[in-house]
Design a protein that fits this description.
Blueprint: E1 17-19, E2 22-27, E3 33-34, H1 36-49, E4 53-56, E5 62-67, H2 69-81, E6 92-93, H3 109-121, E7 134-137, E8 149-158, E9 161-170, E10 176-181, H4 183-199, H5 211-218, H6 247-251, H7 264-268, E11 288-291, E12 296-301, E13 306-308, H8 309-321, E14 326-330, E15 334-340, H9 342-354, E16 368-370, H10 384-394, E17 405-408, E18 420-427, E19 430-437, E20 445-447, H11 452-466, H12 473-480, H13 482-491
Parallel strand pairs: 6-7, 7-8, 16-17, 17-18
Antiparallel strand pairs: 1-2, 2-5, 3-14, 4-5, 4-13, 8-9, 9-10, 11-12, 12-15, 14-15, 18-19, 19-20
Helix pairs in contact: 1-2, 1-8, 3-4, 10-11, 11-13
Length: 492
């Protein structure tokens, strides 16, 4: 086994990451899903070698934590014995219903495999940072709109057939659109983008690319074959001919070279789709029932992304008895159980509820991100999961779909690195409240950790009085202001 990975890296089986509660490994099966018997075997291995807790992350990865150096080696050997092949290299992510959803525009799996192979052939894996990622989204019932990525390829229906919309640096709302191209070009432009990122170093992402580089990428699909027309940009400069190399080579623009810039008009005239012009429907939750071509799938959530391995083993055993043929991890900290009849879906949802899983998308626990906290994690200063459970029970009306509440045991913010409407963070002063920020921000007010949920209940009570008809919780919080919210948290 390799040395432990640094914080911020991807903790693969071969390179577990040190955390406050021991070593952590992350597992993404090459096949996309697991057989129920394989997941049961993995749960049994987790009971033997870890702290007995299994997790599904916000991006749909399976995690096992609380390992030692020796137990991590034993776990890796048992995973291999179970025949579970784990994906390595640059993450190229597809939706949890990829290839089996009758509503998807295109099956993303062939393009994803071609992208993975092209990245490896280009020798880019070792040159890119561990958090660089690609999404290939075929659409359908569980699109990947909420996930951020360096490169996003999304299937769109065009008059000439399916095209792949290419955008960079963000989620579906925030990413910068570049072009809509055929499958071959989508693969090639992805590699071109990642080459540019690699030239900037292992800490770089697509957000670090210059406007000049993005303009060159945006003009990709407007380049005609050299046998048809000369390669001329709107500025009458040569874009590059495949007679002198591939399109990849023509787009591998380095900021350190004195190459001729492609006019910004090349991107503007490329016919790419505009971002932000259309009203977008909220992404569907992975929790619920989904109709497939021949059967059904049911999505079950893990509260705060975590579940004792024993509960998971028991649940998967019941799913196996009810006819489930495959289990896939889904973004949003959920499991999708495939191959079921409608009555079996209903029975399995009942069993899941009894075992403590989340069975409804409206469950307030889906609006809370919470790390293990104390006593599970040595870095934690507050009992995050107990606080989160109390808030979910007592302040559910605060937790509508407009906001996320983050409960973090320390300032590292492992469960939710980005900003949240409200963040409770533990430190030497107790449970601090951060409004519209991350766990690393300076708290605006404090309460004792054991009483943090009561402070949030005070905020929820104020919202009930101040909220206008039809107003979201986030909008009401914005009206109250950060200082007012902090005062509510401190005084109640």
């Amino acid at each position: 086994m390799n040395a432990f990975s640094r914080r911020g890296a991807c903790p693969a089986l071969s390179a577990p990451m040190q955390t406050g509660d021991g070593l952590l490994v992350r597992l993404n099966p090459v096949a996309g899903g697991l057989l129920p018997k394989s997941l049961i075997g993995l749960g049994e291995s987790a009971l033997r070698h870890s702290n007995g807790i299994m997790e599904v992350t916000a991006r749909g990865s399976l995690q096992i934590r609380g390992l030692t150096a020796e137990s991590a080696r034993l776990l890796a050997a048992e995973v291999d014995a179970l025949g579970i092949a784990a994906r390595t290299g640059v993450p190229v992510e597809i939706g949890p219903l990829a290839g089996i959803d009758p509503q998807e525009i295109a099956d993303p799996r062939p393009l994803a495999e071609r992208v993975r192979a092209a990245i490896e052939e280009a020798g880019l894996t070792a040159r890119l940072g561990p958090k660089v990622s690609v999404i290939v989204d075929g659409g359908g019932q569980l699109a990947l709109d909420a996930l951020t990525a360096d490169v996003r390829l999304k299937a769109v229906q065009a008059t000439a057939g399916v095209r792949w919309s290419v955008s960079v640096a963000g989620d579906e709302r925030s990413a910068k659109p570049l072009a809509a191209v055929e499958e071959d070009a989508a693969r090639d432009i992805t590699v071109a983008i990642l080459r540019m990122v690699a030239e900037k170093g292992r800490e770089a992402h697509t957000r670090d690319l210059s406007e000049r580089q993005l303009n060159s990428l945006a003009s990709w699909h407007s380049v005609p074959p050299p046998s048809v027309l000369p390669d001329i940009s709107p500025a009458r400069g040569e874009i590059g001919s495949s007679a002198h190399g591939s399109f990849l080579a023509s787009l591998a623009i380095s900021e350190g070279r004195n190459e001729r810039a492609i006019s910004p008009l090349a991107g503007e005239m490329s016919g790419r789709t505009e971002g932000g012009a259309q009203e977008r429907r909220p992404a569907r939750s992975p929790i619920g029932t989904f109709g497939l071509a021949d059967n059904h799938a049911v999505g079950i959530g893990l509260p705060f992304g975590s579940m004792p391995a024993q509960n998971l083993i028991e649940f998967v055993g019941q799913a196996l008895q009810l006819g489930s043929t495959e289990i896939r991890m889904a973004p949003g900290r959920a499991l999708l159980l495939l191959g079921l009849t409608p009555p079996a879906c209903s029975s399995l949802q009942g069993a899941a509820s009894t075992l403590g899983f989340v069975t409804a998308a409206s469950d307030p626990r889906t609006r809370i991100a919470a790390c293990p906290g104390t006593p599970a994690c040595a870095s934690g200063r507050i009992a995050t999961r107990a606080i989160a459970e109390t808030i979910a029970k007592e302040s559910a009306d605060l937790l509508d779909s407009s906001l996320t509440l983050h409960v973090s045991g320390c300032a590292k913010g492992c469960a939710h690195p980005g900003p949240a409407a409200l963040t409770l963070v533990g430190d030497e002063n107790g449970a601090g409240l951060v409004v519209d920020g991350t766990a690393k921000a300076l708290p605006a007010g404090y309460r004792p950790g054991y009483d943090a949920a009561h402070g949030v209940a005070g905020i929820a009570a104020a919202l009930r009085d101040a909220r206008h008809p039809g107003e979201t919780a986030a909008a009401c919080l914005a009206r109250l202001g950060a200082e007012g919210i902090a005062e509510l948290y401190r005084r109640n």
